[in-house]
Amino acid sequence: MKDQQQKGKKTENKKQQREASKNKCEIDVDLLQEEIGHNSDVQFRDFFLGCKNIKASLIYITGLADKDLIDRHIMPSLMNRFFDLDEVERIALPSFIKDNVLSISDVKEETSVNEVVSKILSGSAVLLIHGLPSVLILGTEKLKTRTIEEPISEAVVRGPRIGFTESLDDNTSILRGYEHIEKLSFVPFQVGKRAKRNLVVAYVEEITNPELIEEVEKRIKKINLDNVPESGYVEQLIEDNYLSPFPQLQSTERPDRVVAALMEGRVAILLEGTPFALIAPVTFSMMLQSPEDYYERWIAGTFIRLLRYCAVFLALFTPALYIAFISFHPGLIPTKLAVSIISTRSGVPFPSLIEALFLEIAIEILREAGLRLPKPIGPAMGIVGGLIIGEAAVQAGIVSPILVIVVALTAISSFTIPQYNAGIPLRILRFVAMLCAAVLGLYGVILFFLFLISHVVKLKSFGVPYLSPAVPYRLSEWKDLMIRMPLMIMKKRPKMMNPKDSTREN
After folding, report:
1. What's the burial of 231, exposed, middle or buried (CB within 10 Å: 0-12/13-18/19+)?
2. C-alpha distances in angstroms, 319 versus 7, 97, 137, 488?
3. Of 191, 189, 178, 260, nearest to 228 (Cα)?
4. Which of 185, 316, 379, 492 maximizes the CB count within 10 A of its CB?
5. Strand, helix or coil at 374?
6. Contact partners, residue 242, CB within 8 Å, separation at least 6
7. pLDDT recorded at residue 471
8. Closest-CA residue to 385 (of 401, 372, 367, 397)
9. Planar angle of CA 301, 312, 404, nearest 5 degrees
10. CA atoms within 13 A on the CB side of 23
11. pLDDT recorded at residue 102
């Protein structure tokens, strides 16, 4: 027993010594071999600097580092250049190579082993001169990314047909070159303890409220996960109320939407490895708006926006109202319509709640299946599956034809919401409304609506009320709420953002 305890203490002491050595300014090939040398894709290229007997090693990962850049510009400069040690002290050799030898732009000196290992795993090459405490990190990253294309998750009717990619550098360059905003600032962060990813917070310095920037940065710094693979992780970790079904940050692939938000005084969050940027803070009205609302004339934009609000109401309450009227309040239905509905439901063996749940769940399954199937098959399967199930259910007498119309209207209305994730809460709450209607009828629907409104009124996104500018009431900002007034009238930025510059034009 004592021998096992002594062995355990020795192992623990070795671990502590190893960690201590990694934090010291002592980097050598053996230490790096111990850390990452067991990986088959890590290359250790040993050579001599210039014409002198100065041994060095170049460490990089095959596939992540640009081998052509290494072979053409780095290795020839290091091996063929003569170093006069009479003029250059050995301890100052890394700085001399950085300033006088290497012809690449991204070179920096580093002494931390953890940082060196992280850079190697990210695609950088490391130049290690044997016997010296510091190394040179060379920017040789060559990540394979797709070309800039039209956003897939957000249809573009009118406007620039470019979307973000998985490359953070591409995304920041798109924002930088999109409108040539002079005071556009990018603040870098790293998230993920084990798998580190670069993250950027973007804002316009002359417009955005400093308190909002500080709050966003504070929440990002609190992220403590091994891996942050997608911006959805960031969204869930920095939102105000994780119990709410409503998204409190807006995710988008469209640079024009991000630029418009930045010019209102909002903040954008871009994560390496995902084309989805986050916008904070967000309001409910933003979820029902599209950049095309501003590209079209104000009359057309207002009509389309009002149509979306009506569609949201239909998508949320139509099945619940059907259940309430059929089960509890048939007297409120016009006589001829009531007779027609009764005749179609005469052979249906189930109550209205069961048949509504059957069709709604079938539609949700078809919608999810259409998303997961290959693109050539998905849309066809969704349409054909819906027609077949609806027709077969009516012919079998399981559901009434009027309910098929109700469910179809509900599904079509939900498709009018510009963003996919904004429609998910409505799909979930629709079932809650149906259950309330089945228990208390129209009174249950009204109670559900009141509870929903009370929750949304209290909900905030980075301190901004979710229903703003409706709650708190600001009539001057209703120019861009349910209607879209002419652009020449909307000269002020939203007051809820507390922008430094409240005027859109000077």
Report:
1. buried
2. 68, 72, 62, 41
3. 191
4. 316
5. coil
6. 236
7. 81
8. 367
9. 120
10. 6
11. 81
Beta strands in 54-204 (DSSP E): 55-61, 107-110, 125-129, 135-138, 184-191, 197-204
DSSP E strands in 82-230: the ranges are 107-110, 125-129, 135-138, 184-191, 197-204
Alpha-carbon distance 308 to 314, whole Å? 10
Name the DSSP letter for residue 141. Answer: B
Q: What is the pLDDT of residues 264-283, one digit of tens each?
A: 889 999 999 899 999 999 99
Omega cis (within 30) before 469? yes
Cα 144 to Cα 111: distance, rounded to the nearest angstrom: 29
Cis status, amide bond into 245, omega within 30 of 0: no
Token code pair at residue 249: 């940050």
pLDDT at 437: 93
Mean pLDDT of the chain: 83
Residue indicated by tokens 């709410």: 244
Instruction: Tell me the C-alpha distance between 415 and 289, whole Å.
Output: 14
* DSSP run (H or E) holding 268: strand 267-271
Cβ atoms within 10 Å of 41's Cβ, excluding its own: 11
Give dist(CA 463, CA 461) in Å, integer: 5
| Calpha distance 72→111 (Å, rounded) | 27
Q: What per-residue confidence (pLDDT) applies to 447?
A: 95
Q: What is the helix (H) or strand (E) element at residue 252, kind and residue range? A: strand 250-252
User: Are 445 and 436 contacting, i.e. CB atoms less than 8 angstroms apart?
Assistant: yes
13-22, 68-77, 339-348, range with the lowest pLDDT: 13-22
Rg (CA), the chain: 30
CA 235 to centroid of chain Cα atoms: 7
Nearest to 191 by CA among 145, 146, 237: 237
Q: Supply 367's token pair.
A: 């919608």
For 279, residues 6+ apart whose C-beta sits below 8 A from its C-beta are 249, 250, 251, 252, 257, 258, 261, 266, 267, 268, 269, 286
Per-residue pLDDT tens over the stretch 100-112: 788 788 888 888 8
Cα(178)–Cα(155) distance, rounded to whole angstroms? Answer: 19
d(CA 42, CA 440): 67
Over 50: is that where the pLDDT of 25 sits? no
Q: Beta strands of 7-49 (E only): which ranges?
A: 42-48
